[in-house]
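Thread: Modeling a multi-component assembly for a lab meeting

Hi all, long-time lurker, first post. My supervisor asked me to bring a structural picture of a complex we are working on to next week's group meeting, and I have zero experience with this. I have the sequence lines for every component (586 residues in total). Could someone generate the structure of the whole assembly? Inputs are pasted exactly as I received them:
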Amino acid sequence: LFVWHLKKTGIRQIPCQFVHLCHVANDRLITFQYFNFLKRMYVTQYNKDLSQRAKPKSDSIVSPFRELQQFDQEKKVIHKIRPVSPVHQPLSETSSRNELREIKSAAETADSVTPVRAEPKDDRQWKEMKLRLDDLPGILARLSKIKLTALVVSTASAGFAMAPVPFDLTCFLLASLGTGLASCAANSINQFFEVPFDSNMNRTKNRPLVRGQISPLLAVCFAASCGVPGIALLTLGVNPLTGALGAFNIFLYTCCYTPMKRMSIANTWVGAVVGAIPPVMGWTAATGSLDAGALLLGGILYSWQFPHFNALSWGLREDYSRGGYCMMSVTHPALCRRVALRHCLALIGLSTVAPVLDITTWTFPVISLPINLYISYLGFRFYRDADRSSSRKLFFCSLWHLPMLLLVMFTCKKSFLEKEDKGDLLGGNHGRAMEIRLP
Amino acid sequence: PPAHSHNDWIGPPDKHSNLRPVIFYAPPEESPLERRLREARQEAQACDQRFWARHNRAFRQEKEEFIYSRLKAKGLEVRDETGQKATLNAEEMADFYKEFLSKNFRKHMQYNRDWYKRNFTITFLMGQVALVRALRWLRWKKKNVGN
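Re: Modeling a multi-component assembly
Sure thing. I ran the full set together rather than chain by chain. Output:
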């Protein structure tokens, strides 16, 4: 039950061990930290999957975790701690990353070593299926996969920021809110559809519907009460195109991707499109039209999904096989690795196209080349070695690669003022426009 | 769960199916609609439990057999010198996972269809029950206010 909750709280409550990891991250740009912060929430969510099969390396770190786990008996406390991911993942320092991974896998060891204590009375007991109002926010946060939603909103904001129009704060906020609501709705429906399968997979067995903390009816009502206002907000408050994209994305995710996961490996491609649409939505929210720039940003995110997901799924093959999920990593492992590598290289290509489309200056492909080459290198290693360690390296790299790429893209954004001088104004203004000074 | 409770109770995950069993509460004044809902949920629970328990057991068994046959082929014993069970690494197990998945594909397709159908029916019934209860409560409220 609390295996991965406590793992995270365990990690959180050892500041000393993480100070030397954090100090690396501390002197980065705020925006970058913002992206990374959100990404790390994603990391801790997924890290459990990767470390669940890792053979424990260091047993020495186990004891501090054991003490800390005893503190967190209250379910409520854990709910509240959960949405705030504390782990600052170091960026390019391989040694600290290894350390982090070791600690995380050690944390996982701690959890597996002390399963009885880690699963306090709650999991062994029968619970009354009554909805408690003070539990509700936590439950809904988990139902809507709030961390993933936050990441989706951040990619949409990136799309908005990259659009070559004056920055409009109200539009930005409306677009972000609408996207967030749409994402909550989609995630809730996804969980609604997948209850017995989620129960059987380690990564997902603590979801609210699986644990009976909320009834399916309430989950659907919540989804509707997020989705309908979200899409309405996008359609009426931003523009109909963004609203349509949002609605389409919800449909794609819940009605195409979710059932397809159990039918065909093509689900990964559909899922990549689902991930690519939010930045496109951000762009259309700003400009009101589907420009080449929007498609490029979508393309970058589309390509990114593959090394990210394929590397992740490499470690989950047993659960996928038993759960009946059709994933490339299980059925077509060679294809899985090939596709991941292919798309790492595609990222290089797409980064080069950006200045051609006047979205960024030519410094962008130059500056982004090192990180793109690095992820391609890891993709190649994954392709060649096809083992756990290379898949994990690739996965962790993808987590910092995307925010970094988007940040670099933003800093290399072609100045709107420059374009205005050239008399080339794209898109329209939305209400009170605020021009921000572009770097 | 205590006998006086008026709610359903959900238990820890089952050892075989990993699903959490629910004990449903049947109130004395249960309406036919509510009874239909409860019975549908009970039946669904039983179906799911049957499917997953059998499926997981088959998985475990076939995995053991696979490991055994592979170890045999390599000329190794099931238990090594220290007495620990020998395991295959992830790459060797990958063949098994692939085979297991494709073998059970049709079974999963069938189960998926049934699961979606059951899920929608139950949720729809829940909606109906909730609606009826809400209307009843409103009527009661109006009556009280009238008095």
